[in-house]
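Marked as duplicate of an earlier ticket. Keeping the data here for the record.
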Amino acid sequence: MSTDDLVLSSALESFLPLINKGKVRDIYSLNPSTLLFITTDRVSAFDVALATGIPSKGAILTLLTAHWSSVLTTTIPGLRTHVQTLALPSSIPPALHSTHAPRAMQVRRLTPFKIEAIVRGYLTREAWDSYQHDRTVCGIPIHHHADGLQERAPFPDGPLYTPSTKADVGDHDEDISEARAAELVGGAMYADRIKELSLAIYRAAHAYAWARGLVLADTKFEFGREEETGEVVLADEILTPESSRFWKRETYGVGGDGGEEGCDKQFLRDWLVAEGLQGKEGVVLPGEVVRGTEERYRECFRRLVGREVEEVVVREAV
């Protein structure tokens, strides 16, 4: 199996019904209870798709999500994820297996909750900007000593849960209150469970990543409802370098002399901002940005899983 070939489109419509072609992921219907996710090597930033893909990205996101699913469901009582198997269905011809199998995941079909469950553990980026302005983060007052907190400091009372809307393609997510989140998900029962799981997952993942040389600064989760049981299930990608901000622990520091050398998509975002290209469609990335992004994703995978992505691909194929 190969992660080297750049897969920008899954093109499986001849074999399965296509439900949705997102900025990164193609979703197909297998049966009334199961979907097939193909995570391509397409990349997006600032809510728009870029013209250039990142080699191996789809395999990294898929296999890392599966890894986290295994870790978290054995760590957090009562947590279920939508991950079922990494196997391709029999309807996909063998000629496509080498490129598609590392990027494929069969998942439970759920009714998605229309919010993004964001957890922030550190005062950085937009949270830092907000805190400097009025000592709040997403409307939550941050109380501390008179001199205030420094950039990249952990929140003194623990991680913050800051939900946002889940915008349609082309629109932007917006921060919302927990009360508004409850309205969007169908009531306090679901909203409270999503918050409870989000914070529990963040704490468990932070400890796991810390022990492997990474700081999980913040992340976002998506959840769905299983219609038969009403259970809240963790869905979509889980704690990947696209959905999360990971810093190398050895270079992390608080304040002006600190650092946040990342193993995530921030490198790509920073380049787009520096070039004045954020939010613009069809941007072609130069080779050094593609290579730099790929290496950061690989480093994230290597530290969290303990293997190169190609080793895991071979293992899954056996």
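See parent ticket for discussion. Residues 65 and 237 are 6 Å apart (CA to CA).
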